């Protein structure tokens, strides 16, 4: 009897798993044939986020040369390396291009098709353009995957959830705001994927409060300006008259840092150094419940990022240091936090060359402005300074820090959930918008289409309107009849709208304190609340505590998602190779 594998989610993560199955199948799979069922209402490869049916104005936030779906010898995995083209090589784009998302979707569809073609002849792929509603079946027996609009389930020896980003039910605050909007004829758009939001309810010329300053905001900005007929001429924005006026703020009060606009030259920081596999193994032995592990992880993150930053500073800009690198490295390795601060103060004369993670994370902490116009000018200066720095190799210690962030994320994927701070901090520093988007932000600000609110933005609903305020500009309150929450929904299994995950949670699947699905970091098997793995159920993606920076990655950076895909693919094939895996149930 042929074996059956059901993969729920045929986007980049499901495609990456398929590629690893194809790469590993000749070695561990010797069964009597395998049917792989890909379940996804969206196109295979591209999935929901990268589908063709979206605005061509929406870009990727990575250079085309920094996007690959293929492994290389930097990936720590047991399976074979199968190299392939980056996006820029495949699409014949200049390497520094920020491709639109539809082009990336075409690349992902090609990778999907190549992976299918590379499978052994006895493995067949079937695509079901439907939603998966639930999974049932005994722990040790065959699983049943129920699909929307279909009376009979798919029978599966194994199930892999590769769902990608998920919609969520509103939390208490969002529910209150939505109810207030309905009662008073206001517009409230909750956290969502901006390309899927109905923005037609935001009227031209009217103020709109926007909470969130990351990539979801950038998409919103584009669709409400160029998407409504505005254009840029010689660095200035020419409105169409159909734009609303966006009042944007967030917890930090500033947009994400620009993508770095130059290449690495010279020595690469030798990473990992203080947070590598050995340290990760030791951290896994620490208790989670009392915060001991999280505190230890935080200390090692700080030390690792500092090492990456200062290695680059000493290697590329030795004239701005006052100590030999060998002496600094030895002292840095032995020093605790207080001694490291003293060491850096002595070895790095200019404070602007020193790494201050707290200042990076909270750039407006303690900053106050007398009025709104003063703050507009100041934040434009902040963005201009960020653009200059991020495109100037004289500040290439920033690139060292970026590489340190990638290295750390590779280890944290093994540790699992480390709290919400890390993911947000990583995104703020390493996953920001292309430089041209920030230049557009400046032009929109000067044109009066975009107004900055400040840090720790608060929103209240009273007197029939929404009101926004910030500690950055005390006493200034903005009123509007529309509020947009420009951020992705939180990927919690308790609040997700995905019926399959909700039922798994109700049946006893484990979750972290922050609501992520618990998985075995060795192979991706789903864990129950007692920590026991389900033998026949796996999960990969941002809704799990093994989440990574993304389903694809920058070449030659270790690709933690690739490592996870490979481990899961090998576990799947090994299970199916065992005698009669489908005999029970």
From TrEMBL:
InterPro entries: FAD/NAD-bd_sf (IPR036188), HpyO/CreE_NAD-binding (IPR038732), L-asp_N-monooxygenase_NS-form (IPR052189). Residues 6-165 form the FAD-dependent urate hydroxylase HpyO/Asp monooxygenase CreE-like FAD/NAD(P)-binding domain. Residues 541-562 are annotated as: Disordered. It comes from the Bacteria. This is FAD/NAD(P)-binding protein. It comes from Streptomyces andamanensis.
